[in-house]
User: Fold this.
Amino acid sequence: MAQGERTDRVGGVLLDMQNISLSFGGVKALTDISFDVREHEIRAIIGPNGAGKSSMLNVLNGVYTPQQGSIVFDGQRYTRMNPRRAAEMGIARTFQNLALFKGMSVLDNIMTGRNLRMKQGLLAQALRLGPAEREEIAHREVVENIIDFLELQAWRKTPVGRLPYGLQKRVDLGRALAMEPRLLLLDEPMAGMNMEEKQDMSRYILDVNDEFGTTIVLIEHDMGVVMDISDRVVVLDYGRKIGDGTPDEVRSNPEVIRAYLGVGGEMVDAALAAAGSVPGAAAAGR
Amino acid sequence: MAPSRSAAPAAAQTFPALLLEHARLRPDKPAIREKDLGIWQTLTWRQVAEAVRATTHGLAALGVRRGEHVAVVGENRPRLYMAMMAAQCLGAIPVPLYQDAIAQEMAFVLRDAEIGVVVAEDQEQVDKMLEVRGECPALRHVIYDDPRGLRHYRDQALLSWDELEALGTRHAQAEPGFFQDCVDAVSPQDTAAMFYTSGTTGTPKGVVLTHAALIDRARVIERMECLTDREDVLAYLPPAWIGQNMFSYTQLLVTGFTVNHPESPATVEIDMRDIGPTYYFAPPRVLEGLLTRVTIRMEDAGWIKRRLFDSCMALARRVGVRLMDGEPVGLLDRALYALGDVLIYGPLRNALGMSRVRVAYTAGEAIGPDLFAFYRSIGINLKQLYGSTETSVFVCVQPDGKVRADTVGPPVEGVQIRVADSGEIQLKSPGLFKEYYRNPEATQAALTEDGWFRTGDAGYLDEEGHLRIIDRAKDVGRLADGSLFAPKYIENKLKFFPYIKEAVAFGAGRSEVCVFVNIDLEAVGDWAERRGLPYAGYTDLASKPEVYALIGQCIEQVNADLARDPKLCGSQMRRYLVLHKELDPDDDELTRTRKVRRAFIAAKYDTLVQAMYEGRDSQYVETEVKYEDGRRGVIRATVAIADARVFAPALREAA
Amino acid sequence: MGFFLETLFGGLMSGTLYALIGLGFVLIFKASGVFNFAQGAMVLVAALSMARFSEWLPGWLGFESKLLANVLAFAVTAGLMWLLALAVERFVLRHLVNQEATTLLMATLGISYFLDGLGQIAFGSSVYSIDVGMPKDPVFILESVFEGGLLINLEDLTAAAVAAALVAGLAAFFQFTSTGRALRAVADDHQAAQSIGIALNRIWVIVWLVAGLVALVAGIVWGSKFGVQFTLSTAALRALPVVILGGLTSVPGAIVGGLIIGVGEKLSEVYLGPLVGGGIEIWFAYVLALMFLLFRPQGLFGERIIDRV
Amino acid sequence: MFYRENGQFKTSYRDDQQIFPIRQDRIFMALLLAAAFIAVPLLASDYLLRALLIPFLILSLAAVGLNILVGYCGQISLGTGAFMAVGAYAAWNFGVRIPELPLLVQFLLGGACATVVGVIFGIPSLRIRGLYLAVATLAAQFFVDWAFLRIPFFTNYSPSGSVAVPPLSMFGISLQGATARYLLVLSIVVVFTLVAKNLVRGAIGRQWMAIRDMDVAAAVIGIRPMYAKLTAFAVSSFIVGVAGALWGFLHLGSWEPLAFDLGRSFQLLFMVIIGGLGSLLGSFFGAAFIVLVPVFLTNVPHWFGLPLSVDTAAHIEHMVFGALIVFFLIAEPHGLARLWSIGKEKLRIWPFPH
Assistant:
């Protein structure tokens, strides 16, 4: 269960971003960025605020359309993506500023993640015919497994609005997992969490990667955690790629340090502290 | 269909036989439910029997032989239960381990019982096993129930439950008759299970219990409480603890009711409300916790509701218990109580998950009379029982209608009790253990030469034949005049008062009994505020004459109690004082588990002790204290000493 | 050709009316993000009170002068509008800060119902007239260009003039007065506005007052043309497409939109109506706006909406 | 207080997902239905049925329809009246032109037509949101009003422009009596409410709510906004259309476009607001409320012996509604339904406050 074994499992290139450039009315958000993601690996995109991390994700799953560059997913080349297609191809994501469905229960929120797989027609649903009910139940079972996996049992039927922030983050992850994605995009999964919550979250992320072999791309602010759980890291700064490689390579990259120095000492501390491992991650067998 | 009393005829004298009986008599009735994936997944007796058969073959395939020990470690989980059954079918001996024990503690047991195969619940337990494998040469296989996180474990010893069953089916094809042969080979006198006593003194001891012993006790209780196969039990305590094991495993197999396993420790309360068990068991601390939650939640209620609640509870205190005991109660009170039942008691029982409880037991430690009364008064048939691992739990049980807070009821069918001159309770019972595993000297020490079991508890049978536990035998002392002196007993009685946090009784070898008292700052502080009594901190409050009066009343009540008790009336408290500081583990006055260190305190506060026995009415002391931040300081105070009202033993006849 | 131009003029004229009402919508939306469905009701109430007071006051105070009557009535009504603004802020907006736009919309629906009821209880529900002495007689212009010239209604001209004046006034108000600037600030960003110490509540009162006055003017113009009655309130709804077309946040948008709609209505009514049984001006404006929306959801002059994730 | 949930554990998802998982609720519901189907017809007077219960039920149904659109899918609509009108006129036209058509089929066809119109006017919702959409739906209102007023075909060239339904009967049972009508309406309302419930608690319902709560996230997990919104419009206007047909056939008997004007649209909107957005139960509360207030307003003064003139009463009614809307939006944005569920929760955890 050591690092060695993990890296064996990492397969060929699943996603390849080629020379992506994106701008909003003249303002350049991303400039000619290329990087690839391999099957089963955990790939981190880090960088100071406004480095274009989120824009990167939004391009990845088709919320934004880049002016230049193309996305190669699983051998298929796309110059423009749209959310629906991304979802159908098996790309799921979580959101930085929780985008849960406030009015719905934890269960229903995660159930929505199954909608692409629910085929029963309007009429069948309206009359709750056998097939419709069976389908509902079949997917309920899948969702229950996710709830079990994320240890949300105690809140199954609570409206997500009433949950504490940390739990909502977990539900968000659960909703993405319900799509049984090949590629999972995590937008600052640990933003605004305390150390303990961060450790839990990193444990879940690793477990997802282990249990389901899901390829994961995550954006993070907290270098410490990222360095600990990711196989390779891309560093962005002002929409440009300034570093790419294993955590150690990145950590020793002078340009990276400079970028972080640029935004304040504590980030560097984080970067250096990153050497020390996160118990949560350790517990998960890393 | 009508609920049938355990139809498993006397023929079935072993657990395997019982299992097959139920599979035959009630194949489609639920045997084990588990809240899993959001619903109560149900296993019928047939399914259980089938799974056990496969598992038995599986264990056999792993080379488990008759008489070998098989460890089972985890929460209450159907598969762990079935593993125990399977082991028993093989004639092997299941040894449940405490799931929260650390690896090293387990290592001892694994070595002591030469465990070859462990059935573990999940990654957490598996990790422990792998950690100590080096020290346990015998350990060959670790079977796990929940594969989560174990996917990439490459250890040869590891085996998933499914793999085990697969092995089983193959083995079954090879030797079809095997299972039945094993089952038939098991005899009632064989060892059924081994429980390690948590070992307050020295290393844990393996208590060896036979099929006959366990099953006999369960049968007796089934008759006594008229248990049927319709009962629902919630298994939420460690299965390695004989109490839980008796209720949710032995009785399950004897009576054939349904045992329910909660989803996770975090959801026990919800699951309890879901299931609404009919047959319930809880140690006092659990009941205490529930009651506290109730009071706290009521705090925030509007005043109308609170008034209603308080008045209803008052009524309940007055008549509830008597109704429960079937004593005569005025018609008006009955009517009022019925109303209260709709408004408060019923909903309360529902909130506690006890609406359906027919029989509830508590045991393990002394239970406060108020706490005890609370549950009975709202219509929950809570009763005390007395027993231990060595006695297969049931020694004494309070029969319906004869329930009192301060006794544990009469010996149940088949149990003989005698009180040694030392005051120790000794007993004979069909449920008695065979021996301590590989520990003859301990076994010998536990039994008298004429074969009675030494409980190590001091007490006596009162005139109604109810057993009354006073104290641990070793703690019981005697006053100068030779009469019985049980400090813990007295201290507990005092501590049942909300105002008293700690108490230390002195008197061994002395003429009379005196006590130190620690007031409960919260309770007394609250009491003081309500009567507008200003105070500055603990020491100040403790020295108030009003407080002394308050504590005086408590002591008086206890004395009255003691006076009613022929054996203990001698040890009524003559004098008391309220300590000027709170007893504190940091000052070594309490153990980390908050048990008073009588000797240490006696030495430390010698001046006060002297003062009490010299009859002074106040004494100046300086005491060194350690603060949280490690600084040391000195508290100087003049501690008042008061006399307590005592009662003549005669008072009993008068009353 | 002449006929066409006449229709065109007619359209422009009624367009100014729509513009006036649209102006009310825009003002309030700009400053408080509220889509004020009650604008119509405000027009109705204003018109009613104007009509009635100008009729009552002479009796009460015993004077003859029509002019004076109108002036006083105007003053009184303006006062009423001020009270209304206060009330709305105090009892509604204050409690609905940071609510969703749709919630606020429904609130204003409530207000409009309330006003409809109140207005008619207070002032009665039959048809009244306002006479502020607007020249009614038609005139012919450009007789040199077309024979017979074009028939123009002076009244409409005046209305247009008034509208123009009002817009100019408002523009000036927004540009040059500190309050006006404050309003613009608020419109741009509530938080920011508060942080630089602009009291939202005060702003709201002012804005609703202004909107009230606009409503009053609209009421006068409209009322003196068609008479004052309940239908005014719903008639105002027909001005909604104006803001849709012009963009909710743009004053010029309201004007342009108003004119477009006005013209569109008249032309369609004249040239399209007969084919489908007439009366189409009721919905034409809406369908026009709707079509338009499909291509430019934020309206002619509205700001673009970008949603971030 | 009356809830005893111990032992009501669920051993299958089927049980767990039923509409009323708690036994006490099922009992209550059963009693309620029994009362509605048996007790009421026996006891209620003709006036009560015709003037209160029938309108209440039909408006409830319409509110249910509207609630699906506004409350569940978050697409505000001010054109409900129009869709009712379409339902009513369509049903009537089918009746007139194909006399042998059974009544129920007419109603359903009415609903179908309303669906078509609803979807057409729902298309803008794909591009525009909130306020703009609200205004857009007004277009439907005005257009439809106009169409039925000015296009003679729809009124089968009746000179007066108003239409009247012939004596109705169903399965040979005459529907002239108030009781018969009441029972028919009640049955239809119950059935459609059940259908609506099934939809909102199913996959499609979750899609609607997802769109309502956070449309970007919804799109990211593969929900097609177009599908979700248009189905909402379709289902909503179908139910509203049927309600419209019932309103015309079983309540009014004869009507003209005015019966379904903008006022009606607002009235229905008020119902769902006061009753509770996103709650079918709320639709019924809202309808009851809106039906009762006028009765109240007209009767109360009489009790105090000060008769109000009809239109004064009408004006006061306006004011009260207006005030109430604002009040509810401020005090309890989730309407009566929320109050109800709070009350229910309190009963469940009684005697504890939380």
Observations:
- Chain D has one domain: 46-349.
- Chain D touches chain B at residues 1, 3-13, 15-16, 349-354 (CB under 8 Å).
